[in-house]
Amino acid sequence: MNWKGFLSRIVLVGVAFPVFAVLIFVLPQFHHLGVNIIVVFGTITGSFEMAALFQARKIPTSSVLAPVLAAGFPIGAYFEVSGYLPPAWLGIWLPVAVGILLVRAVFFRGGRKLTTVLGYASSSMFTFFYPGFFLAWIVRLSGLPDPSLSILFFLCLVFGNDMSAYFAGSLWGASTRLKLEVSPRKSILGFSAGLLGSLIVVGLFAVVTPGFPRFGIPARLALGLCAGVTVILGDLLESGMKRSAGVKDSGGVIPGRGGMLDSVDSMIFTAPLFYYFILLTASQS
How far is CA 223 from the centre of its chain? Predict the structure, then answer.
């Protein structure tokens, strides 16, 4: 087992969780502005890293404009939660931002040949969309009922799965490795431990905060299982993109973890799933 890597994760979680605990429970003012600033930072940094992955494959992309526009996803979501923008703002922002990127790709090529337009436009739009579109749902958690507990529950679900899968897979998973092309070290045991970690988090919240979330045991189990799957899918997706680019880490901004994308990949699909799960079940209770 890579004990150095595991200890790095433990230290990172040991530092990150107290910081987030303060931001969530001590400084929840202005719809958890502190947490949401971190999400905006993660979006911009992740978009820069996404552009770097394209460039590692010598695919031209918008390495500045696309990340700047990507910040509009969490910023717009924050103003939506704060009541300054209607939910329909996204239907305006998306075509405007995509239009800007397309005009930049076709008419402001900066010496690039016309034959590069398709590659440049496609990679730029993906850099704009990923990961900002998905991370914006973390911002929307601050607009849910019991926002502080919602954010904490989400983080615990993700990191509980991630740490359980990493520890069990690294320590005992060698004989059950699936040898997936996108991530050869992933194992059945690791995936199973990740799912179990999500269910344990759900169980702990049922005991510690019995009134939250406001739905019964079957729905809690469904949330734990679904979140366990989306965490795994997000991790595999990012692993596949890194291998396609020929790099080990998406960056080096987070010691012991690599890049920002390496740290938020598990949240990508889980954030919208969690948001809508809590929102819909709360409205029916």
Answer: 17
> Rounded CA gap, 130 and 31, in Å?
24
Residue 147 CA to residue 154 CA, distance in Å, equals 10
C-alpha 156/C-alpha 203 separation (Å) is: 12
Checking if the pLDDT of 285 tops 60, the result is: no
What's the pLDDT score for residue 5? 62
Peptide bond into 213 cis (omega under 30): yes
Q: What is the Cα–Cα distance from 97 to 103, expressed in whole angstroms?
A: 10
What's residue 4's pLDDT?
61
Distance CA 278, CA 144 (A): 8
Does 275 score more than 80 pLDDT?
Answer: yes
**Does 31 score more than 90 pLDDT?**
yes
Decide if pLDDT at 144 tops 70: yes
Return the domain boundaries, the chain: 3-284
* Average of per-residue pLDDT across 93-119: 93
Phi, psi of 258 (to 5 degrees): 100, -125
Site of tokens 């740290």: 263
* Residue 85 main-chain phi, psi, to 5 deg: -130, 140
Judge whether residue 266 has pLDDT over 80: yes
Nearest in space to 241 (alpha carbons), one of 40, 61, 56 = 56
Pairwise CA distance, residues 206 & 201, whole Å = 9
- Using alpha carbons, list the distances in angstroms from residue 199 to 20, 47, 119, 138, 226: 22, 31, 42, 20, 10
